[in-house]
Amino acid sequence: MRTLRIGTFSPSVVLGVAAATGALDAAGLAITQVPARSSPEQFAALLAGELDAAITSPDNVLAYRFVADNPLRSTADLRILAAVDRGLGLSLFTAPGVKDVDSLRGGVLAVDVPTSGFAFVAYELLARQGVKAGIDCEITALGSTPRRAEALAEGRCAVTVLNAGNDLRAEGAGCHRLSRARELGPYVATVLASAGGHEEESLAALTRVIVDTAGQLAAGRLHELASSVTARLLKLGDDDVRRYVELLADPEEGLVAGGRVDRESLDTLVTLRTRHHAGSADLAGALLRDTGLLDERFLPGAAP
Question: What is the pTM of this model?
Answer without folding.
Answer: 0.94
